[in-house]
């Protein structure tokens, strides 16, 4: 007897090649923490795709975190993430930088967001500090 085909696990929006449940999902659920600045960057991109404002706020550095973040009316459709470069941001570092390009569509128009983000690790937890947006 032939078994029904199982659906493939949903790919993580961050582009790691892993399933969401093995990649950014556990970070969003609070089951584990990002082990590097790049992992936090990827999880934050996935949180924007998922419109998970709570995770974005929780992973934002306390000194630069906005009081609130409302993504409910955000019409952006995120299409992909490409990591350009990482500087430091490992398990023994305190600071890290991640340069990335995120592609999306807003109002039917395609756009690219090119940013150099800074991250800081406080008591073993990585946080997004801020970023410089590059001109397209």
UniProtKB/TrEMBL annotation:
Question: What are the YchJ-like middle NTF2-like domain coordinates in residue numbering?
Answer: 36-131
The record's listing under InterPro entries reads: NTF2-like_dom_sf, SEC_C_motif, YchJ-like, YchJ-like_M
Check the record and name the HAMAP family matching this protein. UPF0225
Q: Which family does it belong to?
A: Belongs to the UPF0225 family.
Specify the protein name: UPF0225 protein C7443_10295
Species the sequence originates in: Plasticicumulans acidivorans
Q: What are the top taxonomic ranks of the organism?
A: Bacteria, Pseudomonadati, Pseudomonadota, Gammaproteobacteria, Candidatus Competibacteraceae
């Amino acid at each position: 007897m032939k078994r029904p085909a199982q659906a493939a696990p949903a790919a993580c929006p961050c582009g790691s090649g892993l399933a969401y449940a093995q990649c950014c999902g556990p970070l969003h659920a609070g089951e584990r923490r990002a082990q590097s600045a790049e992992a936090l960057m990827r999880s934050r991109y996935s949180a924007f795709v998922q419109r998970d404002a709570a995770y974005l706020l929780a992973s934002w550095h306390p000194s630069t975190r906005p009081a609130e973040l409302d993504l409910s009316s955000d019409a952006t459709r995120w299409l992909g993430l490409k990591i350009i470069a990482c500087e430091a941001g490992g398990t023994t570092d305190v600071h890290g930088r991640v340069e990335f390009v995120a592609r999306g569509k807003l109002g039917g128009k395609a756009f690219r967001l090119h940013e150099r983000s800074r991250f800081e690790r406080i008591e073993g937890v990585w946080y997004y500090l801020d970023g410089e947006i590059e001109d397209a």
